[in-house]
Amino acid sequence: MTDAAVFRARGIGKSYPGVRANDDVSFAVEPGEIHALLGENGAGKSTLVKMIYGLVRPDQGQMLLNGQPHQPADPRAARAAGVAMVFQHFSLFDALTVAENIALGMENPPPRRALSVRIAQVSQDFGLPLNPARRVATLSAGERQRVEIIRCLLQNPRLLIMDEPTSVLTPQEADLLFATLRKLADGGTAILYISHKLEEIRTHCDRATILRGGVVVDSCDPRDHSARTLAAMMVGGEMRPIDRSGRQSGEVLLQVRALSQAAPAAEGTALKGIALTLRAGEILGIGGVAGNGQDELLAALSGEIRSAAGTILLEGADLSRQGPEARRSAGLLAAPEDRLGHAAVPDFSLTDNTLLTAGARKGLVRRGLIDRPAARAYAEAVIRAFDVRTPGPGTAAKALSGGNLQKFVIGREVMQAPRVLVVNQPTWGVDAGAAAAVRQSLLDLARSGAGVIVISQDLDELLELSDRFCALNEGRLSDPRPTEGLTLDQIGLMLGGAHGMEVAHL
Amino acid sequence: MIDPVALFLLLLSASTPILFAALGELVVERAGVLNLGVEGMMITGALAGFAAAYHTGNPFLGFAGAALAGALIALPFAVLTQFLLSNQVASGLALTLFGLGLAALFGKPMEGVKAPAMSPGPLGLNWIVWLGLLMVPAIWWFLNRSRAGLILRGVGENHDAAHALGYDVRRVRIAAIAFGGAMAGIGGAFISISTVLQWTEGMTAGAGWIALAIVVFSNWTAPGVLAGAWLFGGVTVLQLRLQAAGVRVPVQLLSMAPYLATIIVLVAISARQKFSRRAGGTAPGSLGQDFHALR
Fold this sequence. Notes:
Chain A is α/β, with parallel strands linked by helices. Chain A has two domains: 7-235, P-loop containing nucleotide triphosphate hydrolases (Rossmann fold), CATH 3.40.50.300; 252-503, P-loop containing nucleotide triphosphate hydrolases (Rossmann fold). Helix content of chain A is 33%, strand content 23%. Chain A has 17 helices and 23 strands. In chain A, the strands form five sheets. In chain A, strands 13, 16, 19, 20, 21, 22 and 23 form a seven-stranded mixed beta sheet that branches. In chain A, strand 9 (207-212) and strand 10 form a beta hairpin. In chain A, helix 3 (98-104) crosses helix 5 (141-153), helix 11 (350-358) crosses helix 12 and helix 12 crosses helix 13 (402-414). The longest helix of chain A has 16 residues, at 171-186. Residues 497-506 of chain A have low confidence and may be disordered. Chain B is globular and about 60 Å long. Chain B starts with a helix and ends in a 22-residue tail after the last helix. In chain B, helix 9 (207-217) packs parallel to helix 11 (251-273). Chain A: It holds the Pfam family ABC_tran. Chain A: Keywords: ATP-binding, Nucleotide-binding. Chain A: This is ABC transporter ATP-binding protein. Chain A: Residues 7-238, 254-499 form the ABC transporter domain. Chain A: One of its GO terms (molecular function) is ATP binding.
């Protein structure tokens, strides 16, 4: 039998204690093909590619690379066989230079000068400008990804694996990435592309293999299907469409005026003259590439960092000098991005975690004493209302999966009936089902007359939720634009994170 | 009068123990491991080296034995921290206490005997002093120019990334820990074989801690370590001279001076470096963190 496929998996299986990560997975990637691996978090995509890259060994099944058995003992063996991988969380060394990072990813790197020349050459061939002498710590997310890609390209891979590469990129950077991938594919390289962004897969991929619960459920040409049917295959059932109806914007709830703040840490971003107005029943979306002041803005609104008097007003009352507790009592609540460690204490039970933010508003603490039954009842109510999958309110927060904990921390705030709720990355790393539930709860909250600010890097999410959109760029907030009629291109320009794009388009 | 050339030669000798220990710890920390057991490894080397030199009559074999003993005593620390994922700070402190106690116990028979004489090297300086000076550019070259050094820095900077690229984080770290132990052992043996010429309990007198401090404030570079070791050695020699000259300052204050001077200067340097994390390389990114890979 002649096998044209670059890579073929036959009946791959892998178990971890208590979890069947992959079961009887079979698929093939043809040369010159951009092949999408589609699935929710926990569907087994990452385990599968880790096996191809030699980081994890399969329990059952067979892998073939160019018709030869492929059983890499470690990533070096996989690289030698022609597999290269770009990781979801960059596998880069901040303190080292671009050239050193690339040398670490190669088996037999040429001497330093020759390597620099080759990096310059490859980066020019593919329109990915990079300075080999720069330290990685000083690069933007898009530039960091270029380092990873060039590291892979220098080895002339037969199979290139990309694990959720666009989650940190601006739309322009993502377009540049796809142009590069297409160029590579045209040269005969097979590309395995992991993502859960359906639109991007529909426009750019030739074939999609869909995983659910560790099993291949379907394989199709994504261009023939709508995003909705792909999503249905992914989650195994119709997705309930988001209900945006029934909201009216009312009186002004929150006003932020000329909010400026020095960076709280050496690595942080300073806020520069932030101004915004939020009305009742309205959802304001704030987009931007990570590290442009999102965390600092949330901290300033929640009260973790206090600001100059007169900069933050809730229903006319100046809260600028108040701490988080006072702001919560007044009705300004916040849910930060980092679930474990910032929004919740990992080793505390869910009951104890409700006390951290709901103590005053829900009357769970009286005269300095904790009302345990009330706290437990509130935790149980959140668990029920938000469909948090957990044995009970006594479970430690860290024992919950990311999606379940996210539902819990959002639910904990939403059910306090805030006047204004600020959330940062509400569905980051959360699977599609839980993400839909969280988004719907934010819309419901706005319908009930509260104001909601959603800070997110997921532009689809912002377009879906928000009435008005503004971009955060280097600590500056753009003027808001109505979301309706806004295209991704326009948003990309608002984000302004197009590092080196002009050069790249030559 | 104090002759500056003679003083400098004395400085070189006085700084050698810390230079060795700090260079070893530099490599260990660049690999991402914080080993606070330097003092324990030094005292072990001081005793083992002295005993080996005494029994063989050859001081060079003594230093070889010291290196071996230092590496061996560091191995339990490597197993504890790399395989059993014990806390590095606690394990390192335990290593120091263990080494001090062990050396005191086994050192009893060595008390009161004299070390064999050692033939001096070029310029009348001890061969080990020359070796230490040679180690500075050698380690600099290893870290910044060699492939193995690049991998070691990668492991120390981001062990998850190094693992993802297929490097054996544990093996690199265990090798680094053993090397650090050998270097500390040689440093300790220099005190017993070449400086004091006999064995006394607790003779390293905190040199291991100074070595640790120097690594931090050297900004994790070999030339910085040399500068720190010379500073300590210089003040040591100077205060000994002042004591000998009968300066009317309490002896305790003078003995304290090298430690005090080193710490003050190093703190001043680090205060300047505090905000340069982005611009220049400072602490290795994975320093002191446990590494555990799921397979």
